[in-house]
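Design a sequence for this backbone.
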């Protein structure tokens, strides 16, 4: 057999959410991926935010061994005109994209009412479509939620019951109550560099609350650089700072936390196989 082989080494770190295709990385993408490797961040999931840029996201995964990607539409990219959301079209394109081996998840999707609720119905329809495909095709959903906790939970409750959807809440910044409802639906919780910010007091309590076997870490790079790089461009290697902070909060040794979060990642993203 002439297959390319790689092993799921639990001693290596996963950045479960970054945007490597963004133009922020156009000038030094190789260096950024190498920086990550040098700091033990060996597994990267680069996240789609629309269908138009899917090819660019997917191309990144073709250039490196341990980088996978997702396909889907960020709530901020959902059409605001009621009559222009083409669900059949979207479903066909996403289903087509899922046929690629390196595509291992759906999203990011979810609900974002930070700029108002004008297209709330479209956002919910798009979110529910991703959740339907999650259950139907057995891919986890990456959920973004902002100022929309109630609607997000209603969608999860309904889709987990109806379709057996799976997934995670990405860049978690909400309450313990919200975390509980997501966990009750079997969803994982992913924390970003925000946990290192001085004012993240309530979030510390949520980190304490979330069971280790439901925990993931991410950068959301190029956004949200952790302390001591706050305000600068974020990159996958910085997920180390998030791990260190969570290790301190949960009183779990960093290396053990790496083993746990990496195992959680490969459990949830079960389409990633040991052999290609
Ligand atoms: Zn993102």
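Sequence:
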């Amino acid at each position: 057999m002439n297959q390319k082989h790689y092993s799921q080494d639990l001693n290596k770190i996963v950045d479960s959410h970054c945007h490597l295709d963004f133009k922020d990385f156009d000038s030094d993408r190789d260096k950024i991926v190498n920086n990550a490797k040098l700091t033990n961040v060996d597994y990267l999931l680069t996240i789609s935010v629309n269908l138009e840029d899917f090819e660019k996201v997917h191309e990144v995964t073709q250039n490196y061994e341990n980088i996978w990607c997702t396909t889907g539409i960020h709530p901020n990219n959902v059409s605001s005109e009621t009559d222009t959301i083409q669900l059949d079209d979207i479903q066909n394109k996403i289903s087509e994209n899922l046929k690629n081996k390196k595509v291992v998840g759906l999203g990011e999707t979810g609900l974002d009412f930070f700029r108002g609720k004008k297209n709330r119905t479209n956002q919910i329809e798009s979110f529910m479509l991703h959740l339907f495909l999650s259950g139907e095709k057995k891919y986890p959903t990456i959920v973004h939620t902002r100022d929309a906790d109630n609607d997000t939970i209603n969608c999860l409750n309904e889709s987990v019951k109806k379709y057996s959807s799976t997934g995670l809440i990405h860049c978690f910044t909400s309450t313990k109550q919200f975390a509980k409802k997501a966990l009750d639906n079997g969803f994982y919780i992913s924390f970003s560099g925000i946990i290192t910010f001085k004012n993240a007091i309530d979030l510390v309590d949520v980190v304490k609350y979330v069971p280790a076997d439901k925990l993931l870490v991410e950068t959301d790079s190029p956004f949200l650089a952790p302390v001591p790089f706050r305000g600068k461009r974020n990159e996958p290697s910085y997920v180390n700072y998030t791990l260190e902070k969570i290790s301190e909060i949960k009183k779990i040794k960093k290396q053990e936390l790496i083993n746990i979060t990496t195992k959680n990642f490969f459990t949830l993203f079960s389409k990633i196989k040991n052999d290609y």
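Residues 13-268 form a domain with the TIM Barrel fold (CATH 3.20.20.140).
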